[in-house]
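Re: weekly structure request thread

Next one in the queue (451 aa):
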Amino acid sequence: MRKIIFISLLLLIFLGPALAEAKTVYVAQIKGEITSYTYDQFDRYISEAEKANANAIIILLDTPGGRADAMQNIIERIKSADVPVITYVYPPGAMAASAGTYIALGSHLIAMAPGTSIGACRPILGYSQNGSIIEAPPKVVNFYISYIKSLAKASGRNETMAEKFITEDLAIDPEEALKYGVIEVIANDVDDLLEKADGMKTKVPVRGEYVTLDLKGAEVRYLEPSLKDRVITYITDPAVAYVLLTLGIWALVLGFLSPGWHVPETAGAIMIVLAIIGLGYFGYRSAGLLLIILAVIFFIAEALTPTFGLFTVAGFITFVLGSIMLFSGGGGVDYLISREVYSQIRLIIITIGALLALFFAFGMAAVIRAHRRKAQTGKEEMIGLSGEVVEPLAPEGMIRVRGELWRARSRDGETINVGEKVKVVGMDGLKLIVVREKEKKHEKENTNEVK
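Done, posted below.
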């Protein structure tokens, strides 16, 4: 009996701390424009903290603002969170402007680092062609005044100051924000925030009740943004998205003016899709579907107009990127599916992408072998075939014969424009000698003259 009691005491001594509920706090960073992707990030980070039953999640926020619909979705996600969400404007020099201010006011607790700012929330409709701001009409402004005041009222924060963020486009520093009851904590770093916020009550209910924060001695777990998140943060910069859109349009124009090359239009299509994604109208899943659709278009284009692998490579890259976005994961968080399932999905994505690449690689090899066979069997196989001009013959250019691209020269040195039908009447090495289709009746007597 004494042995049993002794063993039980030893178990309590050594296993007691392990059996006690460990305190954990998750920390994640949100930086850049507020878009649909930002909502995806908030959702993933909060879900990870909820699954771990964390004591809180701290969002390191640095944003100049962004889309109103995404901002409202984020606030609704915070309200429905099962763990306290602390918005921390960090690092020094960061801001929670415009949409970022609304998100902060919808959080359970707001903290700011020295040298940061919050406010400047006046809504705008966009920018005119000359770069000037298009002011929102009074009814829109009044709606957002009411909205931001309701957020402040629900959290017991300063409604008057919240209103001035819109009516006066006011922005304030941490000291003023704390003084006027806009925020709750000024902290130098995460550790300082944990110490100061410990024992505070949330300003917004969590699961229907106000929660006293128990953060002292908690284990801090950082949720690092994935490579995908970093890329999205970069291309959602309005300047970057606009440059991508402009370059994509110019690349398409260049591709149409130089048919047969295909590099400009391929690069242009990818840049335009990235620009559309960067404008923030899609979430990760929608962006993934858009990229997969683009990949399918590339594969079809490769099948109809062989480019010796260019469309295949472009299709493979966009297919893999789209699939990864469609099944978001990694970066230490789960989304839609578990980490284990995501690892299997990622393997399937790579396998399918490799199989597609191999399929088109064999197809391209067959095309190359077909070209070699034509060169070896002589000109008889090509003479008499009809084709279409895809690059003006002046007198040399490019034609499409049986779905293949060939260099060609007008026999009589005349200019033959794009879209005109031509007939092969001879070969000079691997270069086809052609005449207009209407000269069919002279074809036989002129064929023997071509060397």
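The chain has 15 helices and 16 strands. The chain has three domains: 23-223, 231-375, 379-447.
Next request, please.
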